[in-house]
Amino acid sequence: MTRVLSCIQPTGQVHLGNLLGALRPWVAGQHTCDAYHGIVDLHALTVVDTPGVVGDDTLELAAVLFAVGLDPELATVFVQSHVPEHSQLSWVMECTVSYGELSRMVQFKDKSASREGAFISAGLFTYPALQAADILLYDADEVPVGEDQRQHVEITRDIAIRFNHRFGDTFVVPEAVTPPAGARVMDLQDPTSKMSKSSTTDAGCIYVTDPADVVMKKFKRAVTDSETDVRYDREAKPGVSNLLDVLGAVTGRPPTELADEFTQYGPLKVAAAEAVVELLAPIQARRAELLADRSELARLLRVGADKARTVAAATLDRAYSAIGLLPA
Ligand code: TRP
User: Is any ligand 1 atom within 6 A of the Cβ of residue 97?
Assistant: First the structure.
C-alpha cells in the first residue's frame, strides 16, 4: 500500500478551507493508503511564542481530526513533539541541506518579509529541514501538498538523494502529489484569496466551530458581483463560483450542474450555508464530546504516537548508522 504523509500546523482555529481541502480527503484516504498525519506543533513554534497556545491549539486540532472521522486504527495520527525523532533527524537534515538552498525558499522569503521589524527566528529559516525529517522518517512515498508547499517537498527530495549518495541508500525519495479532489475554498469576503485564518476579517472565514446562525450570516454577506446570473466561472465570477464550489464539495455534485439550479444569488447563498451547517453539526457534536473527555483524546493520540515512533525510531537508527555515528 502506498504510504502517504501529510501534516498540518496547529495554528488557530480550523476552518472550512482546511476541512474541505485537506481533512475530508484525509478521511477518505485512510481507507485506500497507509496514511500518516502529523499535527506539527514544532513547526508552529517558528511563529508562536505565547505560553500554552500551541498545546491548546494542538488539542483542538486533534479533536477536530478525530471528529471529522480519522480513525486511529486506520491512519496514524500523531503530534510531532510526541515523537522526538523529528527533532533528532532534523539536525541531520540541517547538515545535509545548504544555506543557499534554504535561502531560496519562497516561504521563508515571504514570511520573513511579512515579519519585517519583528522577531525572525532561525527556525523560520531551517523550517524545511524539520519538514524533510517529518517526511523522510516515515519512508513516505507520496506527500500531497498544495502549490505553496511543493518547493518544500522538492528540497526534501534533494536532501534524501544527497544523503543516500553520501552515506548509502537510507531514505525513500518521496513524490509531491496533487491532493485528491479536495475543494479549494476561497475567502467569502475576498474570493480571489484562499480562505485562511490569517485573513484580515473573520467575516470571510467559516470556522468549524461556528454556530448555524453565524454560518448563515457569513454566507449571506459573501461577496458576489454586480451581475445577476448564476454561472460557474472562476475568472469572471469568483464569488459566485466559490459558493458553487462549496455547495458542490459538500453535496458531492459538480458545481456547473448546481449553477443551473439557481437563478439568483440569495437562494444560492442560503443553500450553501445550509449545506455547510448540516456538514458541521455532527463534527461539532463529536468535537465537543472529545474535548469534554481529555483522557480519551490523550489515549487516541498515544495510539498514534506509539505507531509513529516505531517507524520513526527505525529510520533514525538507519540514518545514524549510515553516517557512522558511534552507537550508544
Ligand atoms: N509546511 C506545511 C504547511 O505549512 C506543514 C508541514 C510540516 C508538512 N511538515 C510537513 C506538510 C510534512 C506535509 C508534509 O502547510
Answer: no
